[in-house]
Design goal:
2 copies of one chain form a homodimer. By secondary structure, chain A is α+β, with helices and mostly antiparallel strands. Chain A has 8 helices and 13 strands. Chain A folds into 2 domains: 136 residues, Jelly Rolls, CATH 2.60.120.10; 80 residues, Arc Repressor Mutant, subunit A (Orthogonal Bundle), CATH 1.10.10. The structure holds a DNA duplex (30 and 30 nucleotides). Chains A, B: Keywords: DNA-binding, Transcription, Transcription regulation.
Chain lengths: 243, 243
DNA sequence: CGATATTTTGACATGGATCAAGTCTAGTGG
DNA sequence: CCACTAGACTTGATCCATGTCAAAATATCG
């Protein structure tokens, strides 16, 4: 099958852990579900895992048994289609929850894999839900995190449904820029995204070829620069209008 | 693609119909947030509202101040674009939560309006969250409801990103069919959806013209029938394959 | 029964997909 | 240090699914 080129690009992003160029970093605070809670509760076993870039965290249909917070690195969740195409559902950044996208009945609705090397802190669902049912605050934090994810997903729906290729690419890059900013602070106009054009294609529902052309045009128009993971929003105002 | 993975399992909900052609119906139970709780808590004022078809429940950017359960009728949430197009984000069916799609900071992320006449049971956010923080079960139910919405949204993302017009239409109609079934029970192959081709177009990101052509073709191929809101899935197997 | 929305049909335009090379880059091994 | 290689990125030529515009047919409703 033609899967090869579409599925493996990640494997080549495998820059090693904890280097300055790559976005692997420690994370002290997690505003989604308090990691202190999370780590305390996960105390009945070794629950922090380090995984290499390209690792599969879970596959579509796997048992729905564990939730994680991503402490470091980037991951993605995606759905695979028979024709070999995949849709990237969301990019998972440090501090985000992952593993709640399933149900007891049907297992995980989507697969997840590490884009860079990652560090995960995970716990059994049974325990997670038990904790939720004991602690309203914890459950509320969880609900808020999921609401945030849902809002991102709805934005994505809007972009995919109504926008041109330009708009979808702009939308995605601006969103990622904002999320990275929110995590890292600072205001260097350049941010580092460990993704390539194939990721953008799979997230926006375009072909890599057309992503390339679209980026080229945006570059020529002075909207942004994106090369080897370095993203600079040159004209945020005009970009926002496009998005 | 396996149908099961595309369509989130919606736990079966209540029953009881009020008028035969129109989907307005009484609702005894709500598995998302227990309406008994909901109504009890909303006791400090008249909180059940009846609204006519076409009413605006809230607009994009409105204050984020109230959540509702939809007791009867259909509603939709949508995002409007400058060019006049709109993206329907989700269809809200009896038993669903509505009004949690926003944040204190930015207000409601999307607008909502009634498709049919609706009955809403609503309460202030402040009270809703207070109740959540006192009752883990309530908070958990809320979290589960939100998770279900997020999964529907992700399905929608996958459909919009990777599927042809046929696939998107099939996807939407099959999903709605299942949701209605889950609510109404029974197994009449025909279900009543109070939507028209324009709704389908706005939800799938197509033009009404092309929706029409697509439906015509599917009808000719013996896949389904959809006319004046009456939907019959003639060949669910093949439809699932298309979707 | 006229007025207004919805659905259907046709002719034509176009954004993006597809196919096919070619170039550039970062690893790898000698 | 260089040659080799496999991905990733570019570019060009061509095709087709879907959008756009226009108008007729049909349903809905006061």
């Amino acid at each position: 099958m033609v899967l090869g080129t579409r599925l493996s690009p990640i494997a080549s992003v495998p820059r090693v852990v904890l280097c300055e160029r790559c976005p692997i970093r420690r994370h002290g605070v997690c505003d989604q579900v308090d990691p202190h809670d999370f780590e305390r509760m996960a105390s009945d076993g070794p629950r922090v895992r380090n995984l290499a870039a390209g690792s599969v965290l879970f596959g579509e249909g796997d048992a729905f048994d564990r939730v994680f917070t991503l402490q470091a690195g980037w991951a993605l969740t995606s759905k695979l289609f028979e024709d070999g195409h995949r849709q990237i559902i969301r990019f998972v950044l440090p501090g985000d929850l992952i593993g709640f996208e399933g149900s007891e009945a049907t297992g995980m609705a989507y697969g997840a894999e590490a884009i860079t090397a990652v560090r995960l802190c995970g716990m059994e669902h049974s325990m997670f839900f038990k904790e939720c049912s004991c602690s309203p605050r914890f459950a509320m934090n969880y609900a808020e995190a999921v609401t945030r994810e849902a809002m991102l997903a709805w934005n994505h729906v809007g972009a995919l449904g109504q926008q041109s290729a330009r708009g979808r690419v702009a939308n995605l890059l601006v969103e990622l820029h904002q999320r990275v900013r929110a995590i890292e602070g600072g205001d260097d106009p350049a941010v580092w995204l460990p993704i390539n054009q194939t990721h953008i294609a799979d997230a926006t529902g375009m072909t890599p070829v057309h992503v390339c052309r679209t980026l080229k045009r945006m570059r020529q128009e002075g909207l942004l620069e994106f090369s080897k993971g370095r993203l600079v929003l040159i004209d945020p105002g005009r970009l926002a209008a496009v998005a």
